[in-house]
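Minutes, structural biology subgroup

Action item carried over from last meeting: produce the C-alpha cell record for TrbL/VirB6 plasmid conjugal transfer protein (Citricoccus muralis). EB confirmed the sequence was re-checked against the source entry. Recorded below for completeness.
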Amino acid sequence: MDFGSDWLHQFMNDGILGLALAAWEFLRNSFEAGAVTAEWWAVLVGGTIIVDVDGAQTVIDHPGMLNVMVVAMIPLLIIFVAVQVIWSLFRSSIEGVVRAFVVALVSVPSVYITTGIGWMLLIATDQITQWILEIGGDDETSAAGGILALFGLYYDPSSGEIIMDENFMLWEMAVNRNEPGQIIVPLGAMIIIFALGLILQMMMIFRLVAILILLTFGPVAIYSLALEPAKAVATRWVSVIVALLLAKPVAAVIVKFGLVASAISNNWIQLVAGMVLVLMAAAMPVVMLTFIAFATGGASDSMERAATGMGRSAARQGNRVVAGSARRATSMTRAAVRTAKR
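Output recorded by EB:
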C-alpha cells in the first residue's frame, strides 16, 4: 500500500476533521448534557414521560423511584426504631427512645423535603455553571472554543465546520504533502482529544445520574437517623451529594482556564495544557468526592465511636448485673449461715 498516496492522506485528513467536530460537540454540550431536566426528575419523583420512537410517541406514567423506595424501606425504618428503643430501654436512656419515635414520625416527610432541597441545589449549580461559562463570552460555546483553540482548532459557526490552524505545528504536519507520514502524529493527537471530550461528557452525565440515584436511596439515609450507631450513613450520604453538586461548577472554572492557557506561545505546551484541563474537568466528580472525604475526615468515625460506646455500655451493664447477683448470692449465703448457727 502506498502510504504517500493522495487518497489515503485525504482519508486520514478527513478523519482528523471528523474527530475534531465530534470532540467540539462533546466539549460544547458536556455541561448541557449534565443538566437536570423535567424528564430526569420525573424518573425520581414521578410524572409523565413522553418517549419518541421512530416518530411514534408513547406516554409513560412513571410512579417515581423515590416513592417506591419510601414504601419499600419502611421495614428497615421499623427495624431501626425497634433496635433503638430496645437498646435505649436497656440503657435507661429516655433520649434514645424519644429520638427513635421522632425520626419515625418525621422521616417520610423529611425524605420529600430533602429531595426538594436537592432539586433546588441542582438547579442552582446548573445556573452557576452556566454563568461561569458565559463570563467573557456570549454563551458556553465561547468557553468550549477557548479549550478548542488550545488544540489549534476553531469552530466556524457559519459553516458548522472545524477549521485547523495550519500555523499550529501539529496541523502543519497534517497538511505536509512532502512528508505524508507525519499525519500519523496529528491523527493520534486528535484521537486523544476526541477521547477526552467524550470522557468529559460521560462524567458530567455520571454526576447527574449519581445524584439522582443517591436521592432515590435517600430514605435509607434518613431512616438510619433513628438508630444512633447508623447515623453516620446520613452524614456520608449528604457529603457525597455535596461533592457531586460542587463538581460541575468547579469543572466549569477549570474549562475557563483554557482562555488563560491559550496565551502560552509554545504550540506543544498549549496542546498538553488543553488535554490536562479537559482531563481535570472530567475528573472533578471523583476529585471532589476525595476532597470532601478529606475535608470531613472522621465523619464515618462517629459510627465506630457509637459502636464502641455501645460495647462499653453493654459491658458495664453486664458487670453491674454480675456484681449485683454476686452480692445477693453472698447475702443469701450469710443469712443461711447465721440461721444455721442459731
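Discussion: The chain has two domains: 6-299, 301-342.
Next step: EB to file the record with the rest of the batch.
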